């Protein structure tokens, strides 16, 4: 479907090659149709929206990412930031496409045939703590010391135990994260490591995978997950739009 050039306001999802066709049955924000505005070699995926519409809702955020991920599963797409709105299709062409056409075409060519996947690995806390109690007498002693006491009674011991546990997770993380990276790296086009946010986080990776090697990538991940499954839980998300492999649009 191609957008009417006279539409007053457009919500923008991303940029695709003008020759590409959208996957069928995409549902955009506010439950509205997803359309295409074409200009030379580029096209922008949009939904006409009411100027008074409340765009920044959780449902619309989910719709935004679902549309982009659905497109990325079949054709290259450069995601736009959630909440991007332009007044008219004409301004969209002049301010978004014309000024950056060469860069967009180069990025779309680089991404052709690929999709992003996200790998998340987190420690199974009880399993790691059980090992620490067996391996470190000081951890075992402090655990026994605070058992059956109030926080005020054993505040210092609880602080010491927490520091020991965090330190142990930090030491384990270095080797386990590298093991996971080494396992999947040969099967992907590109890889970005995200910063760990929680003590139990081992690693979060955004990987760019060619569609022809998805099975190889999944097999490599399954192998390393099998090696580490007693201590680490794995989650794989995708295919996704290549959020981590394009600059800000």
> Number of helical runs?
7
What global shape is seen? Answer: elongated
CATH architecture of the largest domain: 2-Layer Sandwich
Uncertain ranges: 1-7
| Count of spatially separate domains | 2
Mean pLDDT: 88
Computed over alpha carbons, the radius of gyration is 24 Å
Order of helix and strand elements from N to C terminus: EEEHEEHHEHHHEEHE
Can you characterise this structure?
By secondary structure, this protein is α+β, with helices and mostly antiparallel strands. It is built from seven helices and nine strands, in the order E-E-E-H-E-E-H-H-E-H-H-H-E-E-H-E. It folds into two domains: 10-112, no CATH class; 115-245, 2-Layer Sandwich (Alpha-Beta Plaits), CATH 3.30.70. 41% of the residues lie in helices and 23% in strands. Strands 1, 2, 3, 4 and 5 form a five-stranded antiparallel β-sheet that branches. A hairpin with a 6-residue loop joins strand 7 (190-194) and strand 8. Helix 5 packs across helix 6 (155-184) and helix 6 runs antiparallel to helix 7 (214-228). The radius of gyration is 24 Å and the shape is elongated. The two termini are 23 Å apart.
Task: Provide a compact summary of the structure.
With 249 residues, the protein is of the alpha+beta class. Helix content is 41%, strand content 23%.
Give keywords.
249 residues, alpha+beta, Alpha-Beta Plaits, 2 domains, four-stranded antiparallel sheet, 7 helices, 9 strands, elongated
Write the layout of secondary structure elements.
Elements: E1 10-17, E2 35-39, E3 42-48, H1 58-72, E4 78-79, E5 85-86, H2 89-97, H3 101-111, E6 114-123, H4 125-135, H5 137-146, H6 155-184, E7 190-194, E8 201-210, H7 214-228, E9 232-240
Antiparallel strand pairs: 1-3, 1-4, 1-5, 2-3, 6-8, 6-9, 7-8
